[in-house]
Design a protein that fits this description.
Number of strands: 33
Strand content: over 45%
Number of helices: 2
Largest sheet: 12 strands, antiparallel
Distance between the termini: 26 Å
Shape: globular
C-alpha cells in the first residue's frame, strides 16, 4: 500500500494528482484537473466520487461548491499519512461560485480520507459554513453526498449495468433497485426518494452501490445517527416529501447526465444534511461515510457497514473514562472516523484483551499508543497470526495494526512487542 504524488492523465488531460494504491483493482485519486475532488479510479477510464459539501442560494442561480474552482484558487490536497496499514489524505476547498465568490464570505470544507489495505476508506467531511458576510443570502440546502460516475471519453451506457445500474439498501437487506436509465419521476428530473419509497424513512443504514461492467462496483454508505451524521429531518419542498425523521434524499433520473470536455458523467442519488431553506449546519460540523469499491455481493456491504458501526465490546483493559491510573493498558474506545480500536500502553510489553463482537468484525484496525519496540507479534486465542494475516505500521510511539480476518466469535487477542 502506498500514497504518492504524480502527473496523471484522464480524458485527454494531464495534471498533478495524489494517488493511493493497494492490492486491489481500484485506487483513490485526487486530481488537479477535477479540482482535486477525491475519486475512486475503477479502471478503464471510469471514476466515482461520493461528492463534496455544496450549498445553493435562492438569491442567484449558482451552486457554491469546489467544482466551480477551475483555477484552483482554494482547492488543495496533501498526504497526511502513508504506510503499509493506512494512508490518509486531506482535501481543503471553498464553496464558491463561477466568479470565485465564496458563500457567506468564508464557507469552506476539509475532507479526510483514511484508506486501508482492503480498499475501503472512511470519508470524514468537516464543513465550515460561512459567517463572515451576507454574500449569497440564506442557503437553500446543504448537500453532503451524491453518487457521481465520471468517464474519460467513454459513454456511460458502455460501462453501466443496464438491468440494474444502481441500488440503495438498508441494514436489513431491504433494497431499491433501479435499471438504466432511471425512470424520470418529474419533468425536472428529480424527486425526494421517500415520495415514491416511503419505507426509507425507517431505515438505519443507507448503502448505495453503482453496478458496472467488467469493473469493481463503487459504493458509499452512511448511518442515521446524528452523532456521526447530523441532519435535519426530511422537509416539505415544492415537489413533495414525507416529513419523516431521516436525512433528505433525492433521486435523479437520466436527465442528470452531463458532458464535460473529456467524457460524460451521471448522478444517481444525493443526500442533503439540511433541506430547510434559511438554515445551516453549525460551524464546524462533521459527517462520516464509509466508501470504496467491491467485487463481492450486496450482503458483504451490509456486513461491512455493521462492522464499522457496531464495534465489538472490549473486555480486559479498563476504559479511560475515569482517567489514567496504575494499570499497564487502557482502552480508549473505538474511533468511527478511523475504523480503529484504540489502546494506550503505559508499561509492560504486551496488550491483551477479549474482543466480543455483536456483529462480525471485518478486518479490525487496532491502534496502540506507548509502543516501545520495532516489531510486533499478534495472536488470536493463543495462536500466532502469520505475517500475511496482518500489516503493522509504526510512527513514533504509535503502533497501527490492520488484521486481515473476520472475527465472528469472542476472541482473545494478544499483541506483543518484539525486538525491544
Amino acid at each position: 500500500m502506498r500514497a504518492y504524488e504524480t502527473e496523471l492523465t484522464f480524458g485527454g488531460e494531464k495534471g498533478h494528482a495524489v494517488v493511493v494504491e493497494f492490492e486491489k483493482p481500484w485506487r483513490l485519486v485526487s486530481w488537479s484537473k477535477y479540482q482535486y475532488i477525491v475519486n475512486w479510479d475503477l479502471g478503464g477510464g471510469v471514476w466515482f466520487t461520493p461528492e463534496w459539501l455544496e450549498t445553493h442560494s435562492p438569491d442567484d442561480g449558482f451552486c457554491y461548491e469546489p467544482l466551480m474552482d477551475k483555477e484552483l484558487r482554494y482547492s488543495r490536497v496533501r498526504i497526511l499519512e502513508a504506510g503499509p496499514v493506512r494512508a490518509k489524505i486531506h482535501w481543503h476547498y471553498a464553496l464558491c461560485n463561477p466568479r470565485y465568490e465564496i458563500f457567506n464570505g468564508n464557507s469552506t470544507a476539509d475532507e479526510y480520507y483514511t484508506v486501508y489495505p482492503d480498499g475501503i476508506a472512511v470519508r470524514k467531511l468537516v464543513g465550515w459554513p460561512g459567517n463572515e458576510s451576507e454574500f449569497g443570502g440564506n442557503s437553500h440546502f446543504w448537500e453532503v453526498m451524491e453518487f457521481i460516475l465520471k468517464t474519460g471519453g467513454i459513454p456511460i451506457e458502455d460501462v453501466i449495468n443496464k438491468k440494474e445500474c444502481f441500488s440503495f439498501q438498508s441494514e436489513k437487506g431491504e433494497k431499491l433497485s433501479f435499471p438504466w436509465p432511471i425512470p424520470k419521476p418529474f419533468a425536472w428530473g428529480q424527486e425526494p426518494l421517500c415520495n415514491s419509497y416511503p419505507q426509507v424513512k425507517d431505515w438505519k443504514f443507507y448503502i448505495g452501490r453503482i453496478y458496472l461492467k467488467d469493473r469493481p462496483d463503487p459504493f458509499c454508505m452512511f448511518v442515521k445517527d446524528k452523532r456521526i451524521f447530523p441532519y435535519k429531518p426530511c422537509s416539505s419542498t415544492s415537489y413533495g416529501s414525507c416529513n419523516g425523521d431521516h436525512p433528505p434524499l433525492t433521486l435523479w433520473d437520466i436527465g442528470r447526465r452531463s458532458t464535460w470536455e473529456g467524457g460524460t458523467s451521471a448522478s444517481f442519488l444525493s443526500c442533503q444534511a439540511i433541506r430547510h431553506p434559511g438554515e445551516k449546519p453549525p460551524r464546524p460540523c462533521v459527517w462520516l461515510f464509509l466508501t470504496g469499491a467491491t467485487e463481492q455481493d450486496d450482503a458483504y456491504l451490509i456486513d461491512l457497514g455493521q462492522s464499522w458501526y457496531n464495534p465489538a465490546y472490549i473486555i480486559g483493559p479498563p476504559p479511560v473514562t475515569a482517567g489514567y491510573g496504575d494499570e499497564p493498558v487502557y482502552y480508549e474506545g473505538y474511533s468511527f472516523s478511523e475504523r480503529a480500536y484504540q489502546f494506550i500502553k503505559m508499561k509492560g510489553e504486551k496488550v491483551n484483551f477479549l474482543m466480543m463482537p455483536s456483529m462480525d468484525v471485518i478486518n479490525p484496525v487496532i491502534r496502540v499508543s506507548g509502543w516501545k519496540a520495532p516489531s510486533v507479534s499478534v495472536s488470536f486465542d493463543g495462536y500466532p497470526l502469520d505475517t500475511k494475516d496482518f500489516q503493522a505500521q509504526l510512527k513514533g510511539d504509535e503502533l497501527l495494526l490492520w488484521i486481515n480476518k473476520r472475527v465472528s466469535k469472542n476472541t482473545k487477542v494478544e499483541i506483543v512487542e518484539k525486538g525491544r
